[in-house]
Design a protein that fits this description.
This protein is an alpha+beta fold and about 190 residues long. It contains 7 helices and 10 strands. The chain binds zinc ion.
Length: about 190
């Protein structure tokens, strides 16, 4: 069975967002779709156009998410979350977001395009190359760092896994080097 057939089967040949039966095609979820059924949805031309071109958004069209956000399909939940996040300044999308439940994996996926990131976290941490760092990321040290309050030196090339972010200061992250939790300045790390 082709991907399209499987999606038609799953959706009953309707847009999985607004239930339209017109002009349906496969929408593969960015940022890195493999193109499987699990990371694709069946959607109508109107929905896809507005997802891909924020300038074309007709806010009222997305009232359809009131229903489709309850889909059991993670890919549909993720698109719903992204659109509600994009539109939340309207008020009602924020109310829906508050009711919505995504498991950890889906939420991570939903956030992977950076939707809503800018206003959700005013403090944005970036590595030496300007790549956005998120809690749980792994980084590598790009120079030897003296660890404050000890004689330890964290060597260039050391990987620091599962970092946490200082919520107040965009220049500081924390992570473990060996058994020791240290504070690291973002200018000295590169995201792995
Ligand atoms: Zn649609």
């Amino acid at each position: 069975m082709s991907i399209l057939n499987k999606l038609q089967d799953r959706s009953g040949s309707k847009c999985e967002l607004c239930a339209s039966e017109e002009n349906l095609s496969i929408y593969k979820l960015p940022p890195m779709p493999v193109g499987t059924v699990d990371d694709s949805i069946l959607a109508c031309g109107t929905c896809i156009d507005q997802i891909e071109n924020p300038d074309n958004v007709n806010v009222n069209h997305w009232r359809c998410l009131n229903d489709s956000m309850w889909s059991e399909v993670p890919a549909v939940q993720v698109v719903a979350w992204r659109m509600l996040t994009r539109l939340r300044a309207e008020g009602w999308p924020q109310d829906l977001l508050d009711m919505m439940y995504l498991d950890d994996e889906s939420l991570k996926w939903a956030k992977a395009t950076g939707e809503g990131l800018e206003d959700e976290h005013k403090v944005i941490h970036r590595d030496v190359n300007g790549v956005i760092l998120q809690a749980g990321d792994s980084v590598v040290l790009i120079k030897d760092l003296k660890v404050k309050g000890s004689s330890m030196v964290a060597k260039q090339g050391t990987a620091v896994r599962r970092i946490s972010l200082d919520p107040e200061n965009e220049k500081y992250i924390e992570g473990k080097v060996g058994p020791t939790q240290i504070v690291i300045i973002t200018d000295y790390v590169k995201k792995l």
